[in-house]
Amino acid sequence: MAIKIGSYNFDGPHTNTNALRKQSGVYAILGNNGSSNSWAVVDIGESEDVQDRVDKHDRAECWKKQGHRVLTAAAYYVAEQQRMQIEQELRATLNPPCGDR
After folding, report:
1. What residues does 27 pair with on adjacent strands?
2. Whole-angstrom distance, CA of residue 44 vs CA of residue 30
3. Given CA atoms 60, 62, 64, 70 in this order, what sign does their dihedral have?
4. Tens digits of residue pLDDT in 23-82
5. Is 50 in contact with 27 (CB distance < 8 Å)?
6. CA–CA separation, 41 vs 92, rounded Å?
7. C-alpha dihedral sign at 74, 76, 77, 80
8. Strand pairing partners for 74?
9. Which residues contact 41 (CB under 8 A, 6 or more apart)?
10. Distances (CA, A) of 96 to 18, 21, 79
11. Which CATH class is domain 2-94?
């Protein structure tokens, strides 16, 4: 499964974080209220271990407070230098409601 976020093809969306790899990349938290193709970007981040970061995320409460029926995660797997650059680009473009540092 793939979903386009910005100009990147992310792996996902996945409702179970076990589908995410323990690998370097950018993750997107997506919310949906029932329409299969209508995803809202809730958060964008980057990590050396995408699965672990999403599982133990300190902003998870913010994700839940956005009011979506379904929350999922998607990932774009890249090396450290690229992931930081892509995260900054997507945050600036998409301005997700959760993601202030």
Report:
1. 45, 75
2. 9
3. negative
4. 999 999 999 987 667 899 999 999 999 999 999 999 999 999 999 999 999 999 999 989
5. yes
6. 12
7. negative
8. 28
9. 5, 28, 29, 30, 90, 94, 96
10. 24, 23, 23
11. alpha beta
Residue type, 24: S
For residues 60 and 27, the answer to whether their CB atoms sit within 8 Å is no
Q: Which amino acid is located at 76 in the chain?
A: Y
The label of the residue with tokens 């100009």 reads 7
pLDDT at 9 (0 to 100):
97
Place of tokens 């998607």: 74
The residue written with tokens 């910005």 in the block is 6
State if pTM tops 0.85.
yes
In terms of Cα–Cα distance, which of 60, 56, 49, 59 is closest to 27? 49
Structure tokens at 57: 């995320």
Residues in Cβ contact with 72 at an 8 Å cutoff, skipping those fewer than 6 apart: 12, 13, 14, 15, 29, 30, 31, 32, 39
